[in-house]
């Protein structure tokens, strides 16, 4: 007699069980993480973001160009600006000097690049030229009065640059450096996030457009 409570059953093969790891997972749309709010606004207007027409190489080239412009502006206008800030208040009118060929060229009504030649009164050859950058001013009508620092006799310029627009020059150079530096960072950020032609962000845009085009078609 079989013992009570020790019934055995011929168990067949266990039915397969679905585990959470084996269940089909619903993929998250790629565009949800790789398209910015600005890109979404453009897509909602039926436009593609501007970066979809730019390759990775082009974005890197533009970023390097912006960095070069920052370094160029700081390297070209920075040393003389630092000198004028250092000797600010020590410049006196130099009667033995004359300023000629003063010219300012304004760009986009915002930034003016100016240059003046400074030479000795009794000499036809200019001893040096001074260049400076300023914003929101044209320089038209400004007097070209040559000045020299009482601290360093080799530091010469014009009174308009070392006094009247000295603060403007300082803020303008800082502003130009920050502006072009920010643009360079934007280009590099596009590369970092894969938002360039044929990059991950480009595929995200294609997925977004395809998804919304199919939903609009089904609603119609």
- Overall geometric form: elongated
Which residue ranges are poorly predicted, with pLDDT under 50 across at least 5 consecutive positions? 1-30
* Percent of residues in helices: 40-55%
Strands ordered across the widest β-sheet: 1-5-6
Q: What is the strand content?
A: 15-25%
The oligomerization state is: single chain
Order of helices and strands: HHHEEEEEEHHH
Q: Describe the biggest sheet? A: 3 strands, antiparallel
Decide which structural class fits the backbone.
Answer: alpha+beta
Could you describe the 3D structure shown?
- The chain has 220 residues and is α+β, with helices and mostly antiparallel strands.
- The protein has a domain at 56-189.
- The chain is built from 6 helices and 6 strands; from the N terminus they run H-H-H-E-E-E-E-E-E-H-H-H.
- The protein has helices at 31-34, 37-44, 56-86, 159-164, 166-192, 200-219; strands at 91-93, 97-107, 111-120, 126-135, 146-149, 156-158.
- It has a 3-stranded antiparallel β-sheet with strand order 1-5-6. It has a 3-stranded antiparallel β-sheet with strand order 2-3-4.
- Helix 3 (56-86) runs antiparallel to helix 5.
- The longest helix is centred in the first third of the chain and has 31 residues, at 56-86.
- The radius of gyration is 34 Å and the shape is elongated.
- The protein starts with 30 loop residues before the first helix and ends with a helix.
